[in-house]
Write a structure and sequence with these properties.
Elements: H1 16-19, H2 30-35, H3 44-50, H4 80-96, H5 104-118, E1 129-133, E2 140-142, E3 147-151, H6 152-157, H7 161-176, H8 179-188, H9 192-203, H10 209-226, H11 228-248, H12 254-269, H13 276-280, H14 285-295, H15 307-318, H16 324-339, H17 345-358, H18 362-374, H19 381-393, H20 397-410, H21 415-427, H22 431-444, H23 449-461, H24 465-478, H25 482-494, H26 500-525
Parallel strand pairs: 1-3
Antiparallel strand pairs: 2-3
Length: 526
């Protein structure tokens, strides 16, 4: 069940890495959350986050090769485990507020794509998790603990895989050099409450321009007073580390320059409507020149875009606006691109198939999928999952299961395929078969909330309330909602499961979560 992406047009934005950092820092202060009851539009998020790792002008050309290596300077000030906890807290809050796009197919593709970068030094020793943020602007940001958020608009707006990789490489550079840990340590010594308030407000997804403006000013002030001296060197180092990873990962390092130059030109041509990030962190010619100087030292390498990148970008473009008018506009876009031969044909037809599926036009979707298959040398997981989704939406779960069984034989660990097969079994009312299938799927992906939700629904259909509540509790744990998880386990206890071992497991898990909840409450007070 993909959370639909509202209002994505793939318009301009910014690369935080080359224009300034975009990282957020938060602490779980409930009293701070109450200070900002006004809800902000998600597009304000980039500007607010940017203040935490602020832009600073580039160093002189003669200093390029003498950049300070900040590296592990913060190792004694903030432990990696604490960084991870902070990052998990922020991501959990974003997920609860509906800011994260929980498309398993695209999220898993993004993490596979980033592996070409994270498997190279110095990233290879870190644990990374990349996730999609429902936002049409071109942006990405690093969080404490190796979490990297990627705006859906960035994938649509980049013109090549290497451009996307250049953004991610810079973010990875901030993580590997522990820049965020140093900032956290600095704010811990000064205005953590202020930063926490800013972040909690930024995570709100509503509309209050006056509040947004005030918070942006707050973030800018904090950045200027506390972080500029650090971010100047940090940004330079992230550039250097990112370029090295691009080369090692087999990407075209020139793509970083082409992307930044395009953003810079957009800012010049449309000053009043320039990408929001450029207004706070402009891309300067000097900075681009610094990057070019480093690129000239290496060997030129051109990398063709992979099929998965082209299909992922087409899917996001197709679902950028799922209103009636938005889907029609996407249909027109892909038809025009195919007619003018300005898009890869397989990606163009896949975009049309995705639009038709969203419109619940099974006939058109099937026809477009057939065109995609004609242009591919072998079945592809994206295409086969979409074909199965079309059949399931058309009330043909048996046909969907046949397609999914074939796809899973080729890709047995795909979360998107496993989720959809669970849904198809549920639609076929094959509940007894669905339980072991979902349990096996969770053995592979225990941290997938949707699989737990499916298991809960199946157990409810089988009239197993205790097991249904237990599965629902695990879903809430993954969403960071411990009080709700505790309540579900209490309901499971009241259902009085007949199996003694199940009852013991529920009791044990309840005690564990109650203790965890108590620890978190004490941390918030202290």
């Amino acid at each position: 069940m993909r959370q639909r992406l509202g209002g994505r047009s793939g318009g301009g934005g910014s690369l935080h890495g080359a224009t300034g950092g975009a990282s957020i820092i938060a602490t779980p202060f409930p009293e701070v959350s109450r200070l900002f009851s006004a809800r902000l539009p998600s597009r304000c998020m980039a500007g607010l986050l940017a203040a935490v790792l602020a832009f600073a002008p580039p160093l002189a050309q003669s200093q390029i090769d003498n950049l300070p290596r900040l590296g592990d300077a913060s190792a004694d000030e903030l432990s990696p485990s604490m960084e991870r906890r902070i990052g998990e807290s922020i991501v959990g809050e974003m997920q609860r507020r509906g800011m994260i796009d929980d498309d398993a197919e695209l999220t898993d593709w993004l993490n596979r794509f980033a592996l070409a970068l994270t498997s190279t030094p110095p990233a290879s020793g870190h644990d990374f998790r990349f996730f999609l943020v429902q936002d049409s602007t071109l942006n990405a940001f690093a969080l404490p603990g190796g979490f990297v958020g990627v705006h859906t608009g960035l994938i649509v707006g980049t013109q090549s895989e290497s451009e996307l990789a250049s953004v991610l490489a810079h973010e990875i550079g901030h993580v590997t050099q522990r820049h965020i840990a140093r900032m956290l340590a600095r704010q811990r010594q000064s205005s953590v409450m202020m930063i926490a308030a800013m972040v909690l407000a930024a995570l709100a997804a509503g509309s209050n321009p006056q509040a947004a403006g005030g918070l942006a000013s707050l973030g800018s002030t904090v950045a200027q007073q506390q972080m500029l001296g650090f971010s100047r060197d940090a940004e330079r180092e992230a550039d250097r580390v990112g370029l090295d990873m691009l080369r090692q990962g087999g990407f075209d390092a020139d793509a970083m320059v082409s992307f930044l130059t395009r953003l810079q030109n957009a800012g010049r041509l449309y000053e009043s409507g320039a990408p929001e990030y450029l207004r706070t962190h402009p891309v300067t010619s000097a900075r681009i020149a610094d990057i070019q100087a480093r690129i000239s030292e290496g060997r030129y390498r051109q990398r063709p875009d992979s099929l998965e990148f082209r299909l992922a970008r087409a899917k996001l473009r197709a679902l950028g606006d799922t209103s009636v008018d938005g889907l029609q506009a996407s249909h027109t876009y892909f038809e025009r691109q195919l007619r003018d031969r300005t898009i890869d044909e397989a990606a163009g037809w896949f975009g049309l198939a995705t639009v038709a599926a969203a419109q619940r036009d099974a006939a058109q979707a099937r026809a477009a999928i057939a065109e995609v298959r004609r242009r591919l040398p072998a079945p592809h997981r994206f295409v086969e999952r979409l074909a199965a989704q079309v059949e399931l939406d058309a009330g043909q779960p048996r046909a969907a299961l046949a397609l999914l069984d074939g796809a899973l034989a080729r890709d047995p660990s795909s979360r998107a395929l496993l989720r959809l097969r669970g849904r198809a079994l549920f639609a076929e009312k094959r509940y007894a078969e669905a339980v072991p299938f979902l349990e096996q799927s969770l053995a592979l992906h225990r941290d997938d909330p949707q699989l737990w939700e499916l298991l809960s629904e199946v157990q409810q259909a089988l009239d197993h309330p205790a097991l249904a509540h237990r599965a629902a509790a695990e879903r809430f744990v993954l969403l960071g909602a411990l009080p709700a998880a505790v309540e579900q386990l209490r309901l499971a206890q009241r259902a009085r499961p007949a199996d003694f071992h199940v009852a013991s497991q529920i009791d044990s898990r309840l005690r564990e979560l109650q203790a965890q909840w108590q620890r978190e409450r004490e941390e918030r007070v202290n």
